[in-house]
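User: structure tokens for this one?
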Amino acid sequence: MSYLSNNQYARRLALLGEEKNRGLLAQGLRGIERETLRVTPDAKLALTPHPLALGSALTNPQITTDYSESLLEFITPPEHDITTVLSELNTIHRFVYSKLGDEMLWSDSMPCELPPDEQIPIGWYGTSHIGMLKHVYRRGLALRYGKHMQCIAGIHYNYSLADEIWPLIQAAEGCTAPTRSAQSNGYIALIRNFRRYNWLLMYLFGASPAIATSFLEGREHKLDTLDDETLYLPYATSLRMSDLGYQSKAQAELTPHYNNLDAYISSLSKAVSQPYPPYAEIGTHRDGEWIQINTNILQIENEYYATIRPKRVINSGERPIQALVARGVQYIEVRCMDIDPYEPTGINEQTARFLDAFLLFCALHESPCSDEVHTYESAENFARTVKEGRRPGLLLSRSGEKVPLQAWGEDLIKGISAAAQLLDAQRGDTAHMDALMLQRQKILHPELTPSARILAELKQNKETFISFALRQSKQHAEYFRARPPNAEEYAYFTDLAEKSVAEQENMEQTQTGDFDSFIEAYHASTLDVGALT
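Assistant:
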């Protein structure tokens, strides 16, 4: 199958390749959110509070926490070029290390040695109503999924094309829909293609083929035993993204449709308003305290676990769905990327360049609407790849036809190459094609994939998963501690931290009303919940 022969793809590539339009390719935005556990020198979860020197986890826009006090999240500002993003991500790491003492950042997506659930500290955001709402939401996550699962970490990649590209394509293709609708439809089509082909990302970049035995203690599984402390699957790429990761019976039947934005919004709106009997049995209070925001399938929209999401920056008083309804899709968030344990920041430039080419391919190529059969087929390809992606001769299903993973991967690389060449023509270099060819080698030689490299090291060194990840964590810690922030960088992040603490204190001192009323108003969608997730 040749993706290059697609008429729509060829036309759009030619349109953006015109000299007057090519500059638009440099105007899209990129951003990275990196999650990472704070750990002790002996690979145990750090149970200390979020360091005050890093500012308020509620209001610091670049250094916050995700689920736990121990699960840091670093957020880069949106930038036009990924090299700037990666430089900023590196600087955040260097500043954080200047405040960590003897603690370290965990190098892997799968957790370090975790204590019993009751000892894992849920993220604390102060006593303001919005801070308490964030905390109660996380209490609900603990009840619904367990704290261990919430300690899994990943890389989120935010991506947008220049807004001007959508009306340009619209005019060239004679589309008469409002520009906002055309842009939203374009991103939803990108998401459909992404879901068709996201198995390729898991094969190329999956980096969690093994986990600590203690992570699944008390749970049934079908993993093999590597040693007394390590479980694995011999051909797995990303156990993080398998059914061993984020599990939810409530979400099992929740499969939002991506044929248009309205269908997606309708599906999630139903989930955040439809009670789920097991959650209703738990209730919202225990011993007079809130333990979850509501008893619905989802407490909030972002509780839905997806490999990719349509996104829109929200305004004061909006929930994510309301922002999408009001102004359409602004960018997409890729959520399936494992942390690369060989990279200090968890991701490198070659991976990011490949993602940019891959996402441009998904945006420009024809993207037929999906039905339940195609949705199931894509989900099965993904599930098969994360558990046995490197199995020799593995077959995936492409429109009902069985095809070898390697053959399909080669076809996709050829298709993506046209997008990579277009990006390189705009830049005047070969960065994207170089990244593409690097990934092609992994298709030809599975032993080059990160998942294969990790398993090979575990076996060769007779290391447990924890020992391997701790070794990598120590190397990365040495790297960052040898490169402390300069005076300007230190001053910037110190000022950001101090201002965030002051902002949180002001929120706590000036708020009015009680928390119950706040929750009631939140359910009525009349509050600023921008900091919720």
